[in-house]
């Protein structure tokens, strides 16, 4: 898929992968913003949970991957994904997109579309050498659900059902 962005605009996008993602000052504001937009915004933000996930990424990069994206020097997106066997078969290893967040102000723009494409290229590039059979997306934050469905389907994803949440 070719981008409609100019070369100059594409040049403003920087993806950071690997251990550098554990650079908490870049990612934490995005994580906090995601929490504020999510279905769970009424719950307090859990810094120890965030720190634990950063620890997973840092301590076991073979099975835990992450990236963040800057646009014009500002953090605008991040993703956290894991490599694991699919339920029911230890021979069917998949990459599970645990969390993917694009800032609301760029989400539905040409820049956001380009960033989405670059994130997917990066995740596929991380997954392929591990023998991943594909990428499974958890869509559980409640953020931009319909838009996410449209983007995933147009990118060739197969809809497998849905995630539902019922408060107790």
From TrEMBL:
Residues 44-126 form the N-acetyltransferase domain. The keyword Cell wall biogenesis/degradation does not apply. Pfam families: Acetyltransf_1. It comes from the Bacteria. The keyword S-adenosyl-L-methionine does not apply. Keywords: Plasmid. This is N-acetyltransferase domain-containing protein.
């Amino acid at each position: 898929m070719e981008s409609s962005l100019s070369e100059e605009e594409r040049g403003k996008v920087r993806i950071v992968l690997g251990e550098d993602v554990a650079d908490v000052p870049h990612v934490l504001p995005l994580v906090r913003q995601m929490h504020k937009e999510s279905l769970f915004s009424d719950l307090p933000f859990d810094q120890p949970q965030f720190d634990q996930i950063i620890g997973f990424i840092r301590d076991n990069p073979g099975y835990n991957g992450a990236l963040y994206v800057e646009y014009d020097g500002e953090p605008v997106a991040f993703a956290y994904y894991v490599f694991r066997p699919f339920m029911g078969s230890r021979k069917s290893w998949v990459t599970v997109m645990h969390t993917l967040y694009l800032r609301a102000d760029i989400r539905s723009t040409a820049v956001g579309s380009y960033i989405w494409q670059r994130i997917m290229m990066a995740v596929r590039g991380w997954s392929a050498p591990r023998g991943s059979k594909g990428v499974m997306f958890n869509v559980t934050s409640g953020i931009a659900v319909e838009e996410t469905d449209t983007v995933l389907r147009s990118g060739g994803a197969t809809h497998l059902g849905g995630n539902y949440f019922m408060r107790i």
